[in-house]
Design a protein that fits this description.
The protein is of the alpha/beta class. Helices cover 40% and strands 20% of the residues. Strands 2-1-5-3-6-4 form a six-stranded parallel β-sheet.
Length: 159
């Protein structure tokens, strides 16, 4: 099983190092690919939905046909625990489940098309998060899930 994170835009200077660190840590446990797609310019007069749709097309173009899409959204997304994510990844890895592709939208979030196509929706927080913070939290949780699966001491919470 392969995990892929497809995100609108690259990380800003403030969080780039932390994001890289946790993506490297997560890659110790999972086959992980990170793909950045170009952010759509949000010019004055351009509707938010037009920006979302353009970015959505770019995101979906990076999803392989045999991959299951997990949309990161606070709208209608399930609040997963670290243990739940670890169980899902472990089960899929053991059963040879389809690859998972996590999609992170840009400034206006994910398009309706992306949300419609996604097999799962995951909410990292009820707060609105920048794509950099969402990417960092997801990478850290993928790393944490690996340590939970291998019963390593990083995770201090209940499993």
């Amino acid at each position: 099983m392969k995990l892929k994170i497809v995100v609108v835009g690259g990380p800003g200077a403030l969080l780039a190092e932390a994001i890289a660190e946790f993506e490297q840590r997560a890659a110790r446990y999972w086959t992980l690919e990170v793909v950045e797609v170009k952010a759509e310019k949000a010019t004055k007069g351009k509707a938010e939905t037009a920006v979302q749709e353009a970015e959505g097309e770019r995101l979906l173009a990076k999803v392989t046909p045999d991959s299951q899409i997990v949309a990161l959204t606070r709208q209608g997304g399930d609040a997963w625990s670290s243990a739940r994510l670890a169980r899902l990844l472990e089960e899929r890895a053991l059963q040879g489940g389809a690859d998972l592709t996590f999609l992170i939208g840009g400034a206006f979030g994910l398009s309706e098309e992306v949300l419609r196509i996604a097999e799962r929706r995951m909410r990292l927080s009820a707060f609105t998060l920048t794509h950099d913070i969402a990417r960092l939290v997801l990478a850290e949780q993928l790393y944490r899930a690996g340590t939970i699966v291998r019963n390593e001491p990083y995770h201090k919470g209940r499993v």
